[in-house]
Design a protein that fits this description.
Number of domains: 1
Radius of gyration: 18 Å
CATH class: Mainly Alpha
CATH architecture: Orthogonal Bundle
Number of strands: 5
Helix content: 40-55%
CATH superfamily: Winged helix-like DNA-binding domain superfamily/Winged helix DNA-binding domain
Largest sheet: 3 strands, parallel
CATH topology: Arc Repressor Mutant, subunit A
Number of helices: 5
Order of helices and strands: EHEHHHHEEE
Strand content: 15-25%
Distance between the termini: 51 Å
Structural class: alpha/beta
């Protein structure tokens, strides 16, 4: 899959501003940019949710295409419960899709690339 998902780090106001700009374009009948973004307010939040273990699972899903969550857990050498919990987090973010029902769900990567972008505002020194 070649789809890119952008992970953005920055103040929520930036996301709101971009949304408002898109609304203005849509109201004028213009063409909206097609994008898929996940926003985090700060780097701590992004790091807490996009852990190395979760990103490793995403890589395994993309490269090995496991038949089930249990198959992925075996590939990752991790417990089924922890893998299932991490997959649900990745699914809520839209990074994976869980196809099927119950424990036999098959994880599928929803993107082939994650791009990190951000706007980290630095405080100014008092004059």
């Amino acid at each position: 899959m070649n789809r890119t998902i952008t992970v953005r780090v920055g103040p929520v106001e930036h996301a709101r501003r971009e949304f408002k700009e898109d609304l203005v374009v849509a109201a004028k009948g213009g063409r909206l940019r097609r994008r898929r973004e996940i926003w985090f307010a700060n780097l701590e939040e992004a790091a807490r949710i996009l852990t190395e273990q979760r990103l490793a699972l995403l890589r395994l899903v993309s490269q090995k295409q496991p038949r089930s969550t249990a198959d992925l857990a075996r590939m990752a050498h991790r417990s089924l419960n922890r893998v299932a919990a991490d997959l649900h987090v990745l699914a809520r973010l839209g990074l994976v899709q869980l196809l099927g029902e119950g424990g036999a769900q098959r994880p599928v990567a929803a993107c082939g690339r994650i791009q990190l972008a951000g706007d980290l505002t630095l405080p100014r020194a008092a004059a």
